[in-house]
Amino acid sequence: MGFFISFEGIDGAGKSTQVQRLARRLAALGFDVVTVREPGGTPLGETLREILRNPVREMDPRAEACLYAAARAELVDRVILPALRAGKVVLADRFTDSTLAYQGAGRGLSVELLSALNAFVTQGLSPDCTVIIDLPVAAALARVGAPGERDRMERLGPAFFSRVREYYLHLAGQDPTRYLVVDGGRAPEAVEAEIFRLVKEALGRCTR
Ligand SMILES: Nc1ncnc2c1ncn2[C@@H]1O[C@H](COP(=O)(O)OP(=O)(O)O)[C@@H](O)[C@H]1O
Ligand SMILES: Cc1cn([C@H]2C[C@H](O)[C@@H](COP(=O)(O)OP(=O)(O)O)O2)c(=O)[nH]c1=O
Predict the structure, then answer these.
(1) Where is the Thymidylate kinase-like domain (predicted)?
(2) Would you say 161 and 167 are in contact if contact means Cβ atoms under 8 Å apart?
(3) What is the predicted ipTM?
(4) 153 lines ligand 2 (CB under 6 A)
(5) H or E stretch including 131?
(6) pTM for this structure?
């Protein structure tokens, strides 16, 4: 099996930027790297991404959770597991913790039920390590643009994103070996260097 790293954090924290930068760094070391983003990465997943970004009307939170989960089921089965079986390093821009943080802490659904849903759609796969890019809500929302330019989730407001951020930090506290928390408030180069250092350590600890 290869090595599976997920990236988490509130919208605008810098995940997409850092996934690309880490992919380049690991490829330069000779790793075969695959990057994916959620929701998306498969034909069904990309269709669900469009629905989730711009639904015809506001949806029930349970329906929302199931759509993210459906996209994840496809991505795991069609892309992530085959890549890991081929010995690749997979970098995922969001994974199961996004559901716990956004639909659980953010929307108020049961984290226990969402964990069971996650286990079902991932076939039990969980990341070898998870990079949490942490940033105060105001700074992150300033990066995603003016209110008029934001998508459905980005419009949810500071109180929602504070709950999401706190939940990520709570998860990190529960399992400091798996979760690598990085201060996303610095220049992209500084964030990149720290993530690269921490991931190299995590790869070194991996015995597979
Ligand atoms: N460390 C950083 N400092 C300042 N701006 C950043 C930083 N990292 C990313 N950005 C910018 O902030 C915006 C959101 O970054 P992005 O990587 O798309 O975040 P996310 O994927 O977490 O939503 C982009 O315009 C990006 O260029
Ligand atoms: C994967 C996932 C994403 N989301 C949300 C978080 C984001 O607002 C949105 C994904 O859009 P995206 O543009 O990828 O996020 P970002 O702005 O962080 O790059 O979907 C959930 O609510 N639950 C989930 O399980």
Answers:
(1) 7-195
(2) no
(3) 0.97
(4) yes
(5) strand 129-134
(6) 0.96
